[in-house]
Amino acid sequence: MTPEAQKIADADRQFRLALLQATETCKLKSVACSGGKYDPTPSSRLAEPPPRYNTARMNRHDGPEDGALADRCLTGGLPEFGAATGSFRRIVQTPGGISIFYDVGQGQGWQRNIVMNGSPHLPSSIRQWYGDSRGHWEGNTLVVDVTNFSAKTNYQGSSQNLHLIEHWTRTGPTSIEYVATIEDPTVWTRPWSVKQEFTRQSEEANRFYTEPRCIEGNYGHPGLMRGARAEEIAYKEGRGPHPATKDNATDFVGVEDDPLQ
User: Fold this and answer.
1) Are 151 and 128 in contact (CB under 8 A)?
2) Angle in degrees, CA 223, 107, 33, rounded to 5
3) Do residues 53 and 131 make contact, with C-beta atoms less than 8 angstroms apart?
4) What whole-number distance in Å separates Cα of residue 246 and Cα of residue 231?
5) What pTM was estimated for this model as a whole?
6) DSSP state, residue 183
7) How far apart are CA 212 and CA 107, in angstroms?
8) Cα separation, 54 vs 66, whole angstroms
9) Which of 68, 23, 12 is nearest to 243 (CA)?
10) CA-CA distance, 17 to 23, in Å (whole number)?
11) Which stretches within the chain are classed as H helix?
12) pLDDT digit string (tens) for 29-84?
């Protein structure tokens, strides 16, 4: 990463650690508080906006955008290399274009259309959550150039300047090689690539491909915010602890890695 990108990432991490400082997570020196320290007094930064647009989970529910993308039934978008709960793609090729349907996580999927008519990218003033995909063929390889990401996109610190070049190559009757080259000179010192192999499901498995419906977030996220308001009222009335002393961001069963990494 570039020095500036490291600085922004560190500022974001320190902000999230500050919101955790009064919790048992930091008191017990959990890996989730790595780099932070315990302080029984809630941080004075509780009311600050995050240093960059929030896509991860923070220990606060003051407004809808305090929740993680998954809490809001949104996905991280492209590039997509497989969520913790698995991900699948259905690729539909027509004479005039290609569509890829992503089934990610717990219903946070999306439809992606790749323009194949040789037209240029959208004007820079038009930004999209999954970018603007323009494809062409190089032999038997589909090459897709993706730009025009939204400033609310966040892939490892990259947002509106994210640029992807994808190569999709059929390597056998049931296999596809996917290579994504990732570039953003404001975040990384040089482009870097990731390669994955995809295996086709059986025809039986492909018969049904349901529309993703993230009902968990649609119902759950308002509940999280309402619960936060109830905790604040209880604290003001002397019926409960300060909400900032409870870890609602990283305190999940089975946490083995650093969720803020």
Assistant:
1) no
2) 60
3) no
4) 10
5) 0.84
6) E
7) 4
8) 7
9) 23
10) 10
11) 3-20, 24-27, 203-206, 215-236
12) 998 899 999 999 999 999 999 999 998 889 999 998 998 887 887 777 899 887 66
